[in-house]
Amino acid sequence: MLLDGKVVASEKMERLKSEIKGIIEKYGIEPELKLIQVGNDPASTIYANSKIKRGTKLGINVTLEKFDNITMGKLVDYIKDANANSRINGIMVESPLPPSLNFQEVVDNISFYKDTDGMTSFNQGNLYTKNEMIAPATARAVVDILEYYKIQPGNACIINRSAVVGRPLAMLLLNRDYTVTLCHSKTVDIKRIARENNVLVVAIGKPDYIDESYVTSESTVIDVGINYSGNKISGDVNFDSVSNKAKNITPVPGGVGIVTATDIFENFLNGLKYQIKEKLI
Amino acid sequence: MLLDGKVVASEKMERLKSEIKGIIEKYGIEPELKLIQVGNDPASTIYANSKIKRGTKLGINVTLEKFDNITMGKLVDYIKDANANSRINGIMVESPLPPSLNFQEVVDNISFYKDTDGMTSFNQGNLYTKNEMIAPATARAVVDILEYYKIQPGNACIINRSAVVGRPLAMLLLNRDYTVTLCHSKTVDIKRIARENNVLVVAIGKPDYIDESYVTSESTVIDVGINYSGNKISGDVNFDSVSNKAKNITPVPGGVGIVTATDIFENFLNGLKYQIKEKLI
Fold first, then answer.
1. Which candidate from B131, B177, B181 shows the least CB-CB separation from A180?
2. What is the ipTM for the molecules in this complex?
3. Chain B residues with CB-CB distance to A174 below 8 A
4. Do A181 and B180 touch (CB under 8 A)?
5. Cβ of A163 under 8 Å from any chain B Cβ?
6. Alpha-carbon distance B25 to B27, whole Å?
7. What domains are defined for chain B?
8. Which listed residue, of A118, A224, B69, B243, carries a Cα 20 to 30 Å from A108's Cα?
9. Mean pLDDT per segment of 10 residues, for chain B of length 281 residues?
């Protein structure tokens, strides 16, 4: 079966839109998400613009603060002001940052309930105890797809150990009773491990790398990769090879990526609800 | 080979003692660890007393604040005062707390650099990005034993998914290039998975549960369990059965437990060094 991300994303977009509309009407607020970009990385600009576009569809005012360059101290001051500003309901720092700024140190200054990206250490640690109010959007997207298509929890192999994908996803899957194996570039015998798990999540950044030798007829394959080659976008999974054998597979594009783009706003909404509940706005 | 925890712990005790002595002499401070106990759980009292004893050996003043009962608000106020008190260098909340108090919500009020237990969400999330300044002591103890006995990183199976053991240990092992599988009570075919990994860490709370059918001649077995039955202490691993077959095994007692008791003070020392570096004391 093709696990179509567009369907998952569009259903979630409708729910988010309706919930945000309700909040705007009930509380008379104009929800705002503040994006912070340092430098001029072109991919980062594209992502920021797509967030502005999607946010607008949802009734969220997504604003971009761009710095050509900025010191750590000044950036932290800017974030602390945004934390204290009750008109700003979410804050995202676009990556990459220039080498002079450590991404984790920067984002750890964001109040946990405004951490739309889910990348603060506090929110990551919260996942340990099943508090999933805010979680990295890519990890949430993988879970959304599995749940939407009612894949039975079982054994999952994640080929990725980053703080953006592999680690938080492992926490979300453990919270749903999956047995989870985290693999990476140093893993020996990765094919055997991949085949022994009924869910295989791949985020390795190598176009078309995973072929049918990594799967069985029972595999559900979730392709997190987004690789650009000219105008062509491909995943980390060789779709033609794997889709002939595996039970389920996500396409690229139209799979995890579009659900991730939507799940950012799930974080935003959950943070907004928390701010309302705690009378912070 | 018997992986003797006493050797690991005693070597670490010597290092900690010497480092703390150096700090006391150089900065003229009297390091203090504040234990907070609510209620009268007898096991909790035993653990608190053993920390006081071990701390004294290390030149640390371990003090116990006992409340028969206390509200969340009052307890948070007490912790915030201790955070602000520069004479207190570490804070630990003894578990269990009464049902009216949520352990995670309570400890998340501790400043990360005074979080001797390593249980704040912030420090747990920090492990994602390889910042191991403070980590849950049991997870650190398992790694210490593996490293002391020079076990080659490979594939590790952890039977436990808690925030105290399984999840932080997975992070520490990933940081050391292990491929990690987290299993738990809902895992199917746990014996196969256990046998396929050269390191097996067990923390299930069932005395003598794991027998030789879970291991191979290549297995290194780390037994985190501490089960009391009358005066007898046993682990989760049936030592007689498994030690005949496995390559390496930790005993209980004298294995992970004694290293854990020491590693609490590794957290304390690392937090103390941070407080000195950041001129907080």
1. B181
2. 0.96
3. 161, 167, 182, 184
4. yes
5. yes
6. 6
7. 27-112 (3.40.50.10860), 137-257 (3.40.50.720)
8. A224
9. 98 98 97 97 92 97 97 98 98 96 97 98 97 98 98 97 98 98 97 98 97 98 94 95 98 97 98 97 90
